[in-house]
Amino acid sequence: MPAKILIVEDEPAIAELVALHCKHAGFETQSVAAVLDARDIVDESLPDLVILDWMLPDKPGIDFARELRRDDRTKDLPVLMLTARASEDDKVRGLEVGADDYVTKPFSPKELIARVRALLRRAAPELTDSALEIGGLRLDPVSHRVTGDATELKVGPTEFRLLRFMMTRPDRVFTRQALLDGVWGDHVFIEERTVDVHVRRLRVALEPSGHDRLVETVRGGGYRLRKA
Ligand code: CA
C-alpha cells in the first residue's frame, strides 16, 4: 500500500511539482487548492500525510492544521507546512501548535521528500519499504514474501497487511477496533469478529515454521505480536 498524500496548495505550478516528486517517490497523491476541499477529503477518508500551504484562498493552512489537531480522528495525522520565507518567517514559531514540520519556499523537492519520509516513518512505520524481522520471521514488503527460518510461508493479502502492521509495532496490544482502523482503514465498516477470522488464518499460515506462537491473544484486550 503506497502512502496517500494530500496536497493542499493553490499555486498550480507548486502543487504539480510537489505531486510529481511524491509520485516519483512512490506515494499516491491527491491535490486540492483550498481548505474547504481538503476538509471534504479528510472527512471522507484519512490520508497518511498532508502537505499544507500556509496561504490559501479561503483560510490560512495553519488554521486547518489546528482543526486537525483538535479532532481525535485526525490528531495524529502528520502535517507538513509549506511557508514563504519573507512574509511568514515570524509565524513559524507558532507552527508547533498544528504542524509536525515545515519547509520554506522555494524548497528543494529532494528535501521535501526526505521530510515526508521522515514524518511517515514516525507516524506509520509500515508505509516504508524496509524488510521486517522478528525472531526468524521475516516480511519483505517489496517482494511481498514472508519467510519463517528461511521457509517460505503462504500468507494471504489481508493477513500480510495484518502481519506487517503488527510487526512494525511488536509487543503492543491492539484491540480489534484498533486493528480494523490500522489494517482495514479508517471509515471501513467491518464487524470486529472479522479480525478474529484473519488472525486465525494468519496463525495457520505461520504454523509451518512455528511462528504462530508469536501471535498472542490478550484476554479482554485483543492481540499482540510478541517480540520473540
Ligand atoms: Ca498559496
What does the model show?
- With 228 residues, the protein is an alpha/beta fold.
- It has two domains: 4-127, Response regulator (Rossmann fold, 3-Layer(aba) Sandwich); 132-225, Orthogonal Bundle (Arc Repressor Mutant, subunit A).
- The chain has eight helices and twelve strands.
- The strands form three sheets. Strands 2-1-3-4-5 form a five-stranded parallel beta sheet, with helices on both faces.
- A hairpin with a 3-residue loop joins β11 (215-218) and β12 (222-225).
- The longest helix is centred in the middle third of the chain and has 15 residues, at 109-123.
- The mean pLDDT is 89.
- The structure holds calcium ion (CA).
- Calcium ion (CA) binds at residues 10-11, 53, 55-56.
Short description:
The chain is α/β, with parallel strands linked by helices. It has helices spanning 12-24, 35-44, 61-70, 85-88, 109-123, 157-167, 176-184, 193-206, and strands at 4-8, 28-32, 49-53, 79-84, 101-105, 132-134, 137-140, 145-148, 151-153, 173-174, 215-218, 222-225. Helix 6 (157-167) crosses helix 7.
Draw up the topology in text:
Elements: E1 4-8, H1 12-24, E2 28-32, H2 35-44, E3 49-53, H3 61-70, E4 79-84, H4 85-88, E5 101-105, H5 109-123, E6 132-134, E7 137-140, E8 145-148, E9 151-153, H6 157-167, E10 173-174, H7 176-184, H8 193-206, E11 215-218, E12 222-225
Parallel strand pairs: 1-2, 1-3, 3-4, 4-5
Antiparallel strand pairs: 6-7, 7-8, 8-9, 10-12, 11-12
Helix pairs in contact: 1-5, 6-7, 6-8
The structure holds calcium ion (CA).
